[in-house]
Amino acid sequence: MSKMTIRVVHYINQFYAGLGGEEAANALPESRKGAVGPGVQLQTIFGGKAEIVGTVICGDGTYGERTEEARAECTRLIEGFRPDLLVAGPAFNAGRYGFACGDICSTVGKVLGILTVTALYPENPGVELFAKNTVIVQASDSARGMKAALEGLARVGLKLASGEPLGPARLEGTISRGIRKNFFFEKNGAERAVEMLLDKIAGRPFRTEYEMPVFKRIPPAPPIKDLGKATIALVCSGGIVPKGNPDHIRVSSAETYGRYNISELYDLTPETYESIHGGYDRVWANQDPDVVLPVDVMRELEREGVIGKLYDWIYTTTGTGTAVAHAERFGREIGAQLKEAGVDGVILTST
Amino acid sequence: MTREIEKAAGIPVVQIATIVPIMLTVGSNRIVPGVAIPHPVGDPAKGPEADKKVRRELLLKALEAMTTPISEQTLFERK
Known about the structure:
The complex is a heterodimer.
Chain A: E1 6-13, E2 30-33, H1 38-46, E3 50-58, H2 60-65, H3 67-80, E4 85-92, H4 95-111, E5 115-120, H5 125-130, E6 135-138, H6 146-161, H7 169-172, H8 189-201, E7 231-236, E8 240-242, E9 258-261, E10 273-275, H9 283-287, H10 295-303, E11 309-310, E12 313-316, H11 324-340, E13 345-349
Parallel strand pairs in A: 1-3, 1-4, 4-5, 5-6, 7-11, 7-12, 7-13
Antiparallel strand pairs in A: 2-3, 8-10, 9-12
Helix pairs in contact in A: 1-6, 3-4
Chain B: H1 2-9, E1 13-17, H2 20-26, E2 30-33, H3 48-66, E3 74-75
């Protein structure tokens, strides 16, 4: 099933192509046959298993400042070599180069459907941007780690191109893509949990089987100045939806949210709304959905003039087992719509 | 979701939920601890009057949070 030789294209910046440093950062995309710069050493490591058929070069300034043009032209040049695999970098801790490597790998993977790998220092900003879209080998922070990075690129690249599945990131020396794979253990979960607990008590090292994602922080938005004139929206991740769940929002691991007009509603009742959330006991919420999505009291506060207006639309989804990436997308989309609508503040209830 | 709405819209988003550490972890800035997981903004077991009273208190607290300038993640607790 493996091909005779794997065709590799190598992406590097102006510096590693020998065009120059910062003064050549505006170099336009170009391609050359065969290996260039660090590619020569990479070819040696590949041995006869893979051949660097071409090198695509672009200045870091060009890629960072005129990204769309550079991305399109580099993709076209790469496609011209009909590769099986794209290797980019290593870019170590170089921010713009890391961005370019991650971006071209993401793009080529998506557009040309070929395998991609790059090598970056874990704190390179390209890691956070592209870790989910390409395989990133962990590199040191500077070119002193060139040999190890090239060896990692070659090993992981060959594995990818030959269709061999990658093991866990910590064993492969790559950066986690946030993918979980199921596999079987000899010992059941209870035994493993007890062992882990005993290790913890005894101060021995142990490793969780369920790593938690790391979340970001943002500076708080400025407060509302005049609440009496403000439009306030209700958003809910407690699975409160119009009776019958017309948009088929999932009871868990939701990939969608609903937007419903409440301009005629003054109270949520069991006849009009229900909870579909698969992660809590829905008895109370189904008797009175206001205990999760408080339309009734918000209407009172509107009538009393405490707030200017309750926004006419609610946004709702189920927040249980929901992938962080989906939840973030819901937030971005809902936020953009609320901004467009001139909403001044949001109360988001979660279960 | 809270964080991304706030970021995208540039308006204060107050989250009312029960598990405070989760709200802190996901990056919510204005946090009002709710009553219980299945009924964050109500206490229906105590009867309709008490239920509505606590809902009103929580929402007023959320509105207070929305009008308060803050520089970091802040908890606004109902008395």
